[in-house]
Design goal:
The chain is mainly α and 276 residues long. It contains 19 helices and no strands. The longest helix is centred in the last third of the chain and has 17 residues, at 246-262. 29% of the residues are buried.
Length: 276
């Protein structure tokens, strides 16, 4: 090999990779950097599940190599390998999309939560899960509400099941943006608004409190607790909302009048507030 050019050495290694059959021979090529050698290895019919999974752990694989691995006979019906393909950032879209419909529920969640997965693939994974919600057992819905993405948790929030709503509200991926969109829904079950208004985490956010005061389903006792922490300007804007119950509107107007007469202050907008 000493007299061979770099090109000739790569070609020779590619031939060896294509013919490797023993465990030791295959192991020797799993960390190979050369694309040509990796392409030859990916077509090697002696590769087993563990070899394909080891290769797919490498995020530096070229697109062509990932595509060749997807075409390997072992990958065609091997569930762990197909899951690894979908979660790989270099897997072509036309390879990933057909696999998604065969994945189990929480493997779809794993795909949607994998940072390296392209955004469009994550969205399709979420859409696939959302299509399954109607026939999903209650226990699975509650687990999904706790462990799923923020978008999935927000979808599961719109429910009359208090346990399901609480699980979704405790989801670590749920954001204020998700929740504000939920509160803007028409025909929202009162249970959802009541539990948001009572939630220790969400009821402390300034903009969440504004949205809750605006929502006619928020219990009046919670409105009374939130109003003193709002700015007079925001409270006046709320009073212009035609959906506001008259009882709430009247209370806010009286509160603003009293506060202005005392020249009281208000906390900075957009910040979380201490528990009431």
């Amino acid at each position: 090999m000493a007299d061979l050019s770099p090109r000739q050495r790569a070609e020779q290694r590619a031939e060896l990779a294509a013919a490797a059959s023993s465990r030791a021979e295959i192991e020797g090529f799993l960390r190979e950097p050369a694309k040509e050698v990796l392409m030859a290895l990916a077509r090697n019919r002696h590769l087993q599940e563990r070899d394909l999974l080891r290769l797919l752990e490498r995020k530096d694989l070229p697109h062509e190599v990932v595509r060749a691995l997807a075409d390997h006979p072992e990958a065609q019906h091997n569930y762990p390998v197909r899951l690894a393909l979908v979660r790989h950032p270099k897997t072509p879209r036309k390879v990933s999309l057909p696999i998604l419909k065969f994945l189990y529920l929480f493997d779809l969640v794993r795909v949607a939560e994998t940072p390296a997965v392209p955004t469009d693939i994550k969205m399709v994974a979420e859409e696939t899960i959302l299509k399954k919600l109607d026939g999903m057992p209650r226990g699975e819905k509650i687990s999904l509400a706790r462990r799923g993405t923020g978008r999935l948790a927000a979808s599961l929030l719109i429910s009359t099941d208090p346990e399901l709503v609480r699980a979704a509200l405790d989801n670590p991926y749920l954001t204020e943006g998700h929740l504000l969109k939920v509160l803007a829904h028409e025909n929202l079950p009162p249970t959802v608004v009541e539990l948001v208004a009572e939630h220790e985490r969400w009821s402390r956010h300034y903009h969440m409190r504004l949205a809750l005061i605006r929502n006619p389903l928020t219990p009046f006792a919670r409105v009374l607790a939130f109003v003193p922490e709002m700015t007079v300007t925001d409270l006046r804007d709320i009073c212009l909302d035609h959906r506001m119950p008259e009882q709430v509107r009247k209370y806010i107007q009286e509160h603003c009048t009293a506060r202005l007469s005392k020249q009281g202050g208000a906390p900075p907008r957009g910040r979380s507030l201490p528990p009431t």
